[in-house]
Amino acid sequence: MDILKKLENNERLNYEDAIKLYDLDFFELAYYANRIREDKHGKKTYFNINRHINPTNICKDVCQFCAYSASRKNPNPYTMSHEEILDVVENSSKNGIKEVHIVSAHNPDTGLQWYLDVFKKIKQKFPSIHVKALTAAEIHFLATQYNLSYEDIINKMLEHGVDSMPGGGAEIFDEKVRKRVCGGKVTSQQWLDIHKLWHKNGKHSNATMLFGHIETREHRVDHMLRLRDLQDETGGFNAFIPLVFQTKNNYLKVKEAITGQEILKTYAIARILLDNIPNIKAYWATSTVKLALIAQEFGANDLDGTIEKESIQSAAGAQSAHGVQVQQFVDLIKNSGFTPVERDSVYNELKVW
Ligand code: V47
């Protein structure tokens, strides 16, 4: 059947259909993605008031795309103490944060409890703050390093107060590309298995895809369809987040930076393909704020949050080191014709600004 007919009838698309979407007229693609966005969310654009914390950059893995890790090109190794992390949360709590998003490197020297105890300490002191922490890549690292199963680590996360899992570490699922960009860390299947186990506990998580490096359109579609399959089984993903590759200070030799048009097409295709994932997040730290605002017309209904400080993408060249002020965020969303809605970490609406 003709692809346009399928889009018109809101039919689920397969791999071949999805590849064809990239060749559609740019604005026709935007039209269909936006139609789905409007059906699901109207003109609402979600964001949250949150704080990113990256407690250590010492890593036993060697991902080619990473500029953050001290075992790559970052000349400043660090590991924060729990007191330092609690101070950060304390300061940010004065700015009204509702979530801490905690993602670390894979540090073999801290011991398992360093990773876990800080969650309990945050929860004890700030019970209303949502703790989003430990990517599937970190869970795999901790399980391997301390000879535990994924279930063991997940049970410990629950005991220590982790509320939801971020979507990091997914990178690109195609095994050949994965081997080249991050061989040695969590495999694609392990990443999916870990999220499945987390969802089995009635918990939610996000899913990312790192694109704009050496992958092809086919690899992106394959990645999204593997996520769609798991979501059919568990329903546990809240959001899909296509992360635009930042090119500075890393070992991946990318000849040409991805174009804004290709990024917007990928958001739109994500919105069309992932009919079972409620939210498409244009994470402004990797897309730039300006493109994230345009992405609202291409299926994205979430811009992540204020983040305050960010170390992973900014190490690779993103303009995200210091976050965005709430009022600025709200004004930008309003001025682009959308309705800013502050949400909590699992997409309950808190305030229409
Ligand atoms: O998995 C590393 C990525 C991710 C680069 O769940 C890079 O709500 C671009 O997952 N260029 C971690 N990206 C961040 C992450 C995330 C961010 C925001 C929201 C959520 C969420 C999750 O950062 C890693 C990796 O794919 N990354 N290096 C780079 N050079």
UniProtKB/TrEMBL annotation:
[4Fe-4S] cluster binds at C59, C63, C66. One of its GO terms (molecular function) is iron ion binding. Pathway: Quinol/quinone metabolism; menaquinone biosynthesis. This is Aminodeoxyfutalosine synthase. Its cofactor is [4Fe-4S] cluster. Belongs to the radical SAM superfamily. MqnE family. PROSITE patterns: RADICAL_SAM (PS51918). Its EC number is 2.5.1.120. S-adenosyl-L-methionine binds at F65, E171. One of its GO terms (biological process) is menaquinone biosynthetic process. Residues 45-278 form the Radical SAM core domain. Coiled coil: none annotated. It comes from the Bacteria. Pfam families: CofH_C, Radical_SAM. It catalyses: 3-[(1-carboxyvinyl)-oxy]benzoate + S-adenosyl-L-methionine + H2O = 6-amino-6-deoxyfutalosine + hydrogencarbonate + L-methionine + H(+).
